């Protein structure tokens, strides 16, 4: 019941009722990513969209799927056998504005004091 009410009254939790109906009528499932987001397409108009797993946050879309959604690449990541390189790190969404955001020592939202300046900076002055 809660999920049903969220779909009626909010647009930032997964999908709305309109998106659910449109996906049911015209959507073709293309794939799912490691975060639980599902990706669809409508072949007649070459329209592509994502239904987020939880809060609608664009930075939660991995790079391969982002390229497919924005028509940068034609082949979806689920339709190719791409293997990431050893030096590539797994995708992480932007945590700015959340409790998991980076807060350096001495910032307003973290504890501790700001470290003293080291004196290695020399201001530029025109000649």
Distance between the termini: 71 Å
* Element-by-element helix/strand order: HHEEEH
Total strand count, please? 3
Strand order of the largest sheet: 1-2-3
The helix-and-strand class reads alpha+beta
What value does the average pLDDT take?
A: 87
Q: Detail the poorly predicted runs.
A: none
Fraction in helix: 10-25%
- From the alpha carbons, calculate the radius of gyration and give it in angstroms: 21 Å
Please count the helical segments: 3
Major beta-sheet overview: 3 strands, antiparallel
How would you sum up the global shape? Answer: extended
The proportion of strand residues reads 5-15%
Give structural notes.
- The protein is an alpha+beta fold.
- It has a domain at 2-79.
- Helices cover 20% and strands 12% of the residues.
- The chain has helices at residues 2-9, 17-26, 63-69, and strands spanning 28-32, 38-42, 47-51.
- The chain has a 3-stranded antiparallel β-sheet with strand order 1-2-3, covered by helices on one side.
- A hairpin with a 5-residue loop joins strand 1 and strand 2.
- The longest helix has 10 residues, at 17-26.
- It is extended.
- The chain starts with a helix and ends in a 58-residue tail after the last helix.
Task: Produce a short descriptive summary.
By secondary structure, the protein is an alpha+beta fold. It has three helices and three strands. 20% of the residues lie in helices and 12% in strands.
Question: What labels would you give this structure?
Answer:
127 residues; alpha+beta; 3 helices; 20% helix
Task: Map the helices and strands.
Elements: H1 2-9, H2 17-26, E1 28-32, E2 38-42, E3 47-51, H3 63-69
Antiparallel strand pairs: 1-2, 2-3
């Amino acid at each position: 019941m809660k999920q049903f009410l969220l779909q009626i009254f909010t647009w930032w939790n997964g999908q709305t009722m309109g998106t659910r109906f449109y996906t049911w009528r015209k959507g073709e499932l293309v794939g799912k990513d490691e975060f639980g987001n599902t990706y669809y397409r409508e072949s007649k108009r070459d329209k592509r969209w994502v239904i987020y797993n939880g809060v609608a946050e664009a930075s939660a879309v991995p790079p391969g799927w982002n390229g497919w959604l924005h028509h940068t690449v034609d082949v979806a990541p689920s339709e190719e056998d791409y293997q990431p390189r050893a030096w590539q790190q797994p995708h992480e969404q932007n945590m700015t504005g959340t409790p998991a955001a980076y807060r350096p020592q001495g910032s307003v939202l973290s504890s501790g004091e700001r470290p003293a300046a080291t004196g290695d900076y020399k201001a530029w002055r025109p000649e």
